[in-house]
Fold:
Amino acid sequence: MPRWKPDAVERLQTAALELFGEQGFERTTVAEIAQRAELTQRTFFNHFADKREVLFGMSSELQQEVVREVAAGAGSSPPLDTVLRALEVVADKMFESRRAVVARRHAVIAANPELQERELGKNAALTDAIAAALQEQGCEPATAFLAAGAAMLAQQAAFQQWTRLDETRTLRELLPDAVRALRTTVEG
Amino acid sequence: MPRWKPDAVERLQTAALELFGEQGFERTTVAEIAQRAELTQRTFFNHFADKREVLFGMSSELQQEVVREVAAGAGSSPPLDTVLRALEVVADKMFESRRAVVARRHAVIAANPELQERELGKNAALTDAIAAALQEQGCEPATAFLAAGAAMLAQQAAFQQWTRLDETRTLRELLPDAVRALRTTVEG
Structure:
């Protein structure tokens, strides 16, 4: 058996999410995760600072991708559309191929109030970063705040639908529906 | 000096917020808060479980008030309007007379990532509770989620404006402006 495992990150993530789901996040140790993945703890720590990092390690990459897309698209269309197009691109790139992992991660976080707060913090940071990116393109602060918040709200609605077992549409496909529903709700 | 102090809660809150602002939340002890308020630690613990409770003790009362107002108003108007009217009533009742305290609390939380996450958790719980109250009145889950989220987004925009030093309008007065701005942003 070769010692070099190209899919180590994925195996560790899968093992961790399985164990978090089975026995809870708090009760799961790095030793157990490594054992389940048939890797060493050393390999785990080569890729993750701790077990929390398995859940939130992607957040900064996600934020960078979204901000880059917003910056690339800003100025040419209304701010909300700019953000939505960025979220669509990133949905395809970072979510669609990992549907099972993303859904499992979501379930683990939903089961633990502390992790939920951390996730809310990451989402708030992403919203702030989107608003900042819009402002850099000349959008007014108040409008940037509302466009970023509204886009994230639509994204969350689409995401909730996407993580349902019986849902077959992609997240990108679900986003426009969520935006239409948001428009209807806000127009009253 | 009488031992019974009718304004003990307010004095403890003011003292705590002053100290949190001066030296940070983490570095402030209950002993210091009690001393600043010229009260005993025993009195502090009669009113608050810990120093965090000074910041978040109002959250459950706030949630109860908002949910009651939503339940009272639901069904007669579009869901978003129902929530906005509830937030207006509660803004007058729980925020307006305590502007300085609320603004100071906001600044303390903004300076501490852990407190920020806690605040985000409280806001998310409030949003969920509003959505649940709308659903109990027959609103569809997806619409309830979006109406609650959109109302909270407008509330946050109004709140940001309200906590500015140069702002003299009430939070209730600022809410409709925020909603109009949200409508414009979402309509594109």
